Structure formats: structure tokens, C-alpha cells
Amino acid sequence: xxxxxxxxxxxxxxxxxxxxxxxxxxxxxxxxxxxxxxxxxxxxxxxxxxxxxxxxxxxxxxxxxxxxxxxxxxx
Length: 75
Fold this sequence. Notes:
Shape: elongated
Structural class: mainly alpha
Number of strands: 0
Order of helices and strands: HH
Number of helices: 2
């Protein structure tokens, strides 16, 4: 069986309570799976934030003008 080259043995000092809580919240079978899922969530959240920021920048630089037709927002 070939070794999985994307995995590496790392040694960290982590809060066991946080790991167990993440394991329960993420419904992970093992602590390793919980950490993997948590890392995947952080990476995907960063990607979503980056895409949202880029879309916002494109929107703001498009020159669109937004008017408060109901007068609900004061300047």
C-alpha cells in the first residue's frame, strides 16, 4: 500500500475540551477527523470571504448609483 503523501505526522499541544467539542459539533468519528473538518471549514470560509470581498469591490467600482427612494436612510 502506497503512503498518502498529503498527510504528515504533526505534534501539537491542543485543548482537549475544544477538540472533543469540535468532534461532537462536526459529528466526527475521531479527533483527527474533527480537526480535518475544522480545517476544511476554515479554508472554505476564507474562500467565501475572499469571493464576497471581490464581488463587493466589483460592485463598488462599477459606478452604480443607489438611491433611497423611500427616504428611510438619512445621510
